[in-house]
Amino acid sequence: MKKYKFTILLLLTFVIAFPVITVKLVTAEQEKKARQEELAQVTDTEKEPAEAVAGTEENSTDKAGTGQADIDSTENTEDKTGIKDNETVADTEQEGTFTTEDISYFSDALFIGDSRTVGLSEYADLGDADVFATIGLSSFKLFETEVDMPGYGKETLDEVLSRKNYGKIYLMLGINELGYPHASIEKQYREVVEKIREMQPDAILFLEASLHVSKAKSDSDSLYNNANIDWLNGVVESLCDQKQTYYIDVNEIFDDGAGNLDAQYTSDDAHPLGKYYAQWAEWILTKAIVKEK
Question: pLDDT for 176-198, tens place per residue?
Fold first, then answer.
């Protein structure tokens, strides 16, 4: 009798539990199917270095235009060993285009940029050049930012470009934009170049490559790394026609031979030490373009 009661009890337990087990199995199968459908909807797109970390303009503002502390700073003056001899550096594919000039070449020049250009103005001799630069500057904020211009007070770039005709303009921006989507960066940089060309049609425009960061910085940072910087520099170079707009890349004197800012030239992994900005300015003078009269 007890045996029958046990059998009946076992059957009742199975009858009650079976729907629950079935539901769980169905639910798991549905979740698996849903994941498969979701994966099937993902299409292959052109993959670029920063796509995985770029986000959108709206959620990247703090990174890309407000003075990222670990990138855009000029507090980098520790002294270290000497720099490479410029005379051993081969010219790029534009060899024969550039010539070397003295400091007077900067007499009708305007430098535009972020903290790296601030460093040039503070530690190097730019002669009588004007400098429109501030820490944290990006192409997205370029025409709405005011900079204190000696003898004129705070001015926007529109005002600077409107009151004087420049013979040459040096533009170096991009590192603070790396928090934006690549397509947005490229579009904005192109618009900046076009506007400068429109306002200063007779000026020679030099687009400067963004300086690499050190290997330690590049390897540890998903955003500010040399793969992203190389992508950016490719965009910048593509905007140059080598007739009125020229590409110059100072990384040739600061790199370690493997595409990184050489650690001996920096103490913050992103900017040259103060004394090396003078070498930078001297190098720029070896990339001069003299128009035929």
Answer: 999 999 999 999 999 999 999 99
